[in-house]
Amino acid sequence: MPDTTTAVEEVSEAQIAVHWKEEEYYRPPAKFVGQANLTDPSVTERFSLDKFPECFKEYADMLTWDQYWHTTLDTSNAPFWKWFVGGKLNACFNCVDRHLTRYQNKAALIFVPEPEEERPEIITYRELWQRVNEVAAMLREFAGLKTGDRVTLHLPMVPELPITMLACARLGVIHSEVFGGFSGEACGVRIADSGSRVLITIDGYYRNGKLIDHKANADIAVRMAEQNGQKVDKVLVWRRLGKQSATATPMIGGRDYDLRDVMKEFAGQKVAPVSMPAEAPLFLMYTSGTTGKPKGCQHSTGGYLSYVAGTSKYIQDIHPEDVYWCMADIGWITGHSYIVYGPLALAATSLIFEGVPVYPDAGRPWRIAERLNVNIFHTSPTAIRMLRKAGPDEPGKYKYHFKHMTTVGEPIEPDVWRWYYTVVGKGEAVIVDTWWQTENGGFLCSTKPALDPMKPGSAGPAVPGIFPVILDENGDEVPAGSGRAGNICIRNPWPGIFQTIWGDPDRYVNTYYRKYAKNKDSKDWRDWPYFCNDGAMQAADGYYRILGRIDDVINVAGHRLGTKELESACLTVEEVTEAAVVPVVDQVRGRVPEIYITVKPGVQPSKAIEEKVVRVIETSIGKIARPKEVRIVPDMPKTRSGKIMRRVLAAISNSMDVGDVTTLANPEVVEQIRVSVQGKAKVEQKTGPEDIRKFGQER
Ligand code: PRX
What we know:
Elements: H1 30-35, H2 43-46, H3 57-60, E1 71-74, E2 82-85, E3 88-89, H4 91-95, H5 100-103, E4 107-112, E5 121-124, H6 125-141, E6 150-153, H7 160-171, E7 174-177, H8 184-194, E8 198-202, E9 204-207, E10 210-213, H9 215-227, E11 234-238, E12 256-258, H10 259-262, E13 276-277, E14 281-287, E15 295-300, H11 302-314, E16 323-326, H12 333-345, E17 349-353, H13 364-372, E18 376-379, H14 381-390, E19 404-408, H15 414-424, E20 430-434, E21 468-471, E22 486-490, E23 500-501, H16 505-512, E24 530-538, E25 544-549, E26 553-556, E27 559-562, H17 563-570, E28 576-586, E29 590-599, H18 607-620, E30 630-632, H19 646-653, H20 668-678, H21 690-693
Parallel strand pairs: 4-17, 6-7, 6-8, 7-14, 8-11, 11-12, 16-17, 16-18, 18-19, 19-20, 29-30
Antiparallel strand pairs: 1-2, 3-13, 4-5, 9-10, 14-15, 15-23, 21-22, 22-24, 24-25, 26-27, 28-29
Helix pairs in contact: 6-7, 8-9, 11-12, 14-15, 19-20
The structure holds adenosine-5'-monophosphate-propyl ester.
Adenosine-5'-monophosphate-propyl ester binds next to helix 12, strand 20, strand 25 and strand 27.
């Protein structure tokens, strides 16, 4: 509820004029257009609103169905959408088996280990099929998993990750992969939420030149899951190295199993793919929300796979002959959709890189691209900024040629876009800036690479079949070209949209549909715009510019962190009484969290407490959430009703104007905190970016 007695005067999103320079267009290179999958401008007509939802048949027809569907979109239980109802298919069959006749000897996956002296491992479609069958047999017979069970994977970027995912899909077992860099505790919470009784992990992996002991996380995860009411019966451990072990953590008898031994029994075994209803869940992907608990986004089999196949073909321009490298991690939705399911559904060669982009130096990605003849490259603005900083001239030293490049995960600054285009792409590659979210399954906005001109910093128009609208707080449309921002929503459902939040359908409706639902009893999709939680504006040419999250979610290097999640972790430190997390602009990672805490009476502020807070964040969430600073303050700025004003702290951390604070319960503390952060002299106050200006405001 807005605190009307004390709230600092608020300006609605749509009243804020956003001033940004119109950038010039870049045309897609003729060579790219000459070979592109989507060159027919009639696509706009084929996917027009009056052809909805039947237009999506074009994507579903890219798959092989065991049984064709009878209803394209069933809205009878809106907003729980059902796509391709009556249809049956198997996702693993579509990504592997069906390619064997034409492509069995072609590389499906190429694994590039981080140590450069270890050679890339090439896995053909035939070999992938055999390995997936063996793992499926093991999951069914040894782990006792059956259709509809959930299984948690806590795996880094190794080939066993997509192989295990596909083996689950073969059986109709719902996989829930937790990003390998997440801590054991974060994994345990997700195990419990999904109700998994099997955890699949690995002993270790390489990152930044170090062999990381990953098995240690499994023990913590199992303990954490048990504390949250879920017993884990089996921990299955893949092995990263040949004969040696990559972990010093002991195996626990009767619970932990070395898959190198277990798999011997399943060599050469085959398992028939289970024909699944289109609406059966394929996987869960946890993401951060405004409140503490991560949300398990449930994605479907038929709708999801159709959508990622369609967008991989038209937007990523993937052909079976391409060598495609998405440098994201499979532990995030980008990796699920655009390393594994999309590219493999199209019989492409998809590269998996274990390491970090700038190790051992900023030339590494370009050496990989040259050696393996990569022609499609997909990464995030954070990686691009990092590579530019560490080696601005490196790309020019290597003889690779990209036809297509993607940026995803956060807004890209036009200047960074131009470096990507000119230096990384050598002016030969088309760029797509794809905007979407974990919940969405696949792209929402992007240029159609051979058809639309590119505009640095803009995600472009909506992709085929997606109809966005920008609404203000009252639900009125903010028109294109008005120079005003608002809340971007999607008018219509689409096949890739998630089905629900695992175990919490009310939260699904409340978070994504309640705000703008026109009639809560309606069974008409037109009454249920999907609320994205992003601020955006639309230029006169129809291109969308995404301004960032409008909820209290911090986008760190393209990864979503819930502030509440971080704050609850801080409160587990004994000395801490209150914690507030705010985003700070960072040159490389976009945004990073900064933490304000108060300590218990009688406790002396100290470096040791700050370090404890950093450690607890690393162990409860992971290194990715490591704060830039932990600041111990005498008190938090608060409203008279006692609410911490994170907005004021965010302004201080970013040298922005704190606005009028006279109505707060303790206005004097604001200046004290400002001085302790910025020093005595008044620093020049900046206006700051939209997401930070709006951070922490009641809405
Ligand atoms: O704020 C938007 C930003 O990332 C959020 C979604 O994060 P996540 O669910 O982790 O998915 C990331 C990969 C799909 C969005 O709400 N975002 C994503 N892509 C872009 C973006 N912001 C601007 N431009 C983009 N291309």
